[in-house]
Amino acid sequence: MNVLFRFDGAPWLAERVSSLATQGLSVRLCSEQEESGYLSALPDAEVLWHILRPITADAIDIAPNLKLIQKIGVGVNTIDLETAKKRGIAVCNMPGTNSRAVAELTLLLMLACLRRTVGFDTLTRAGQGWSWPVEWQGGLGEIAGRTVGLVGFGAVPRLLAPILTAMGAEIIYTGRRSYPDVHFPFVTKEELLARADILSLHVPLGEGTHGWLDAASIAALKPGAIVVNVARGGLIDEAALISALKTGQIAAAGLDVFATEPAAAGNPLFSLPNVVVSPHIAWLTRETIERSLVVAIENCRRLAAGEDLLHRVA
């Protein structure tokens, strides 16, 4: 079975996927930076392992043998699902495989905002580590004693909330519904915005969540709150966020995702000293990749055997 894996794989991963030939899988790693190589490989692909670069209708149209698009992760908003459906191409994701990695980076971004990690790092490297601005002092803080508002309570918050509780935080959450097995308080969006010292987003991008944190919601936030987003950039009105970061309505933001990706060097968020960023890599650990390969390989086996696929979404 011919598998096209569109990802910039390190040598260890190239070796790992080449060993899958013993399981009947011919896996070709194709850099996400090389559009021509990707397009030339599509006609032979029976399975496409997908990370971030959008899979368009045009790409699907030049892949006549394609039977499965396997998302390495959860969100499928980067896949043209309608075109895949019309072609009878299965689309699957893999919930849970990256949850621990995402939960850990969420915590890292919270702490980096509270402790101004990036600012101190920059000054220390410049030999000015003992000359930091005294006005930073009052803004340095701890997780303990703070209220963390989680938007959504899926796999990532279920891992993250107990960690935050152990560190001394109070947890509240909101979303489309409450969960009977979750013992943290479910509150309205309005209450969460008013109470949260740290707001962390954990919902998919779609109808009802695009622009969830818009200008009005930002204005309703507790003054001086911290915003963390490891879900999707479109959940936040970036222009309103930038304005609030400049005025101090929002004290800091930790962002792994952006409205347009990859984020360009000129993104105004990057010039703000109270912003910590990473390039949509919350999911990215070697452990996540290994767990993901288990699911992807199993779905290839099931496809060949004519069995029901795991986590089929379309």
What would the keywords be for this entry?
six-stranded parallel sheet, 314 residues, alpha/beta, 2 domains, 11 strands, five-stranded parallel sheet, Rossmann fold, 34% helix
Summarize the structure.
The protein is an alpha/beta fold. It folds into two domains: 2-97 and 285-305, Rossmann fold (3-Layer(aba) Sandwich); 99-277, NAD(P)-binding Rossmann-like Domain (Rossmann fold, 3-Layer(aba) Sandwich).
Description:
This protein is of the alpha/beta class and 314 residues long. It has two domains: 2-97 and 285-305, NAD(P)-binding Rossmann-like Domain (Rossmann fold, 3-Layer(aba) Sandwich), CATH 3.40.50.720; 99-277, NAD(P)-binding Rossmann-like Domain (Rossmann fold, 3-Layer(aba) Sandwich). The protein has eleven helices and eleven strands. The strands form two sheets. Strands 7-6-8-9-10-11 form a six-stranded parallel sheet, with helices on both faces. A five-stranded parallel sheet has the order 2-1-3-4-5, with helices on both faces. The radius of gyration is 21 Å and the shape is globular. The relative contact order is 0.13.
